[in-house]
């Protein structure tokens, strides 16, 4: 069964040093170590309950966030025009300017905006908001094909819905589209089922909730608009007569919309290597959309969140470099170290 932990453990970032084997311990000490392991299993079960309650809190606060996300959606799709007060934003650079300089710049900007408005029709809402978000995030832009972009221009909102109280842990991503020429659905969904309980056969591996499986939806494509399929033509030559005929064949096509038809997990849970890789990436993408994209969409639209993500990776990279440097230094200080080996 393929699962993906949702919580990263500090342990995964540590380098474990060699330690004496428990087999070398005296029998009475081993017995006490076994008692500690039993305590650790109980800790894992308490931790599982902790994450279940975190899920309940997420559901509770999702209801508090939703009115703000709904207003964001209304602004994006031009259902609501924000007031002047709602549009005021003081950038860091502006804070350093004097009031008079600010007024001068605002007046200049106002004139430029008025000139642009005269030159072209006023756009409605925030055009291509979600498409821009997707293109700005490497994890998502890697999924996009050129033929996906005209469709994603019609994407108006992405919502996260949690499972009802008392139901097994899960969340659903809802992709809301305006009416378009590509498919008749107004909402495309992807549901991820989770588990927060230690594996009885390996309780010490528990590291928080895991995504167990995911389910997509059927897209009702308009005839000739299905971008997940492509038609290819092949010429076949008859061995006896030597005549040539053209055969038309429909084959799968790379597309973001394959996201809604993930590989099915067999009842025995066994997957081939390719399907397992696809599902692992799918789980990561679903979790990223839920945790980062939906809550901070405007910052991915402007690129500010991407800069923050890059800073995080840079810091981790520097830490890794430092650790590597320390290892090299240790090797050179080792009397038995041979650089040729």
Automatic annotation (TrEMBL):
Compositional bias of kind Acidic residues: 305-341
Instruction: List the InterPro entries.
Output: NAP-like_sf, NAP_family
Name the record gives this protein = Nucleosome assembly protein 1-like 1 isoform X1
Compositionally biased tracts (Basic and acidic residues)? 101-122
Coiled coil located at which positions? Answer: none
Instruction: Quote the cellular component terms of the Gene Ontology held in the record.
Output: nucleus
Per UniProt, the keywords (alphabetical) are: Nucleus
Which segments carry the region annotation Disordered? 90-122, 304-341
Tell me which domain of life the UniProt entry assigns to the organism this sequence originates from: Eukaryota
Q: Where in the cell is it found?
A: Nucleus
Which GO terms fall under biological process for this protein?
A: nucleosome assembly
Q: Which family does it belong to?
A: Belongs to the nucleosome assembly protein (NAP) family.
């Amino acid at each position: 069964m393929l699962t993906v932990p949702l919580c990263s453990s500090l342990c995964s970032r540590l380098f474990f040093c060699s330690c004496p084997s428990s087999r070398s311990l005296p029998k009475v000490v081993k017995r006490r170590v076994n008692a500690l392991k039993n305590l650790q299993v109980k800790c894992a079960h308490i931790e599982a309950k902790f994450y279940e309650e975190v899920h309940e809190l997420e559901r509770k606060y999702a209801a508090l966030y939703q009115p703000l996300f709904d207003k964001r959606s209304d602004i994006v799709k031009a259902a609501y025009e924000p007031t002047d007060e709602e549009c005021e934003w003081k950038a860091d650079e502006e804070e350093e300017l004097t009031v008079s300089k600010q007024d001068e710049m605002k007046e200049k900007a106002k004139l430029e905006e008025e000139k642009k408005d005269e030159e072209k029709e006023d756009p409605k809402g925030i055009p291509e908001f979600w498409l821009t978000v997707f293109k700005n995030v490497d994890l998502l832009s890697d999924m996009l094909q050129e033929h996906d972009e005209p469709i994603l221009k019609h994407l108006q909102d992405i919502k996260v819905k949690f499972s009802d109280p008392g139901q097994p842990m899960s969340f659903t991503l809802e992709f809301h589209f305006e009416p378009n020429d590509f498919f008749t659905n107004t909402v495309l969904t992807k549901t991820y089922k989770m588990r927060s309980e230690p594996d009885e056969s390996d309780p010490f591996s528990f590291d928080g909730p895991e995504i167990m499986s995911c389910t997509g939806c059927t897209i009702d494509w308009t005839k000739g608009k299905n971008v997940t399929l492509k038609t290819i033509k092949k010429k076949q030559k008859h061995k006896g007569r030597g005549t040539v005929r053209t055969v038309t064949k429909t084959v799968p096509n790379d597309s973001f919309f394959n996201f809604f038809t993930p590989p099915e997990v067999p009842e025995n849970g066994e997957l081939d290597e390719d399907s397992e890789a696809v599902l692992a990436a799918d789980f990561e993408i679903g979790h990223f959309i839920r945790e980062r994209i939906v809550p901070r969409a405007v910052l991915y639209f402007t690129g500010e969140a991407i800069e923050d993500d890059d800073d995080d990776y840079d810091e981790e990279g520097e830490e890794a470099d430092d650790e590597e440097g320390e290892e090299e230094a240790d090797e050179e200080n080792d009397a038995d170290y041979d650089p040729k080996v």
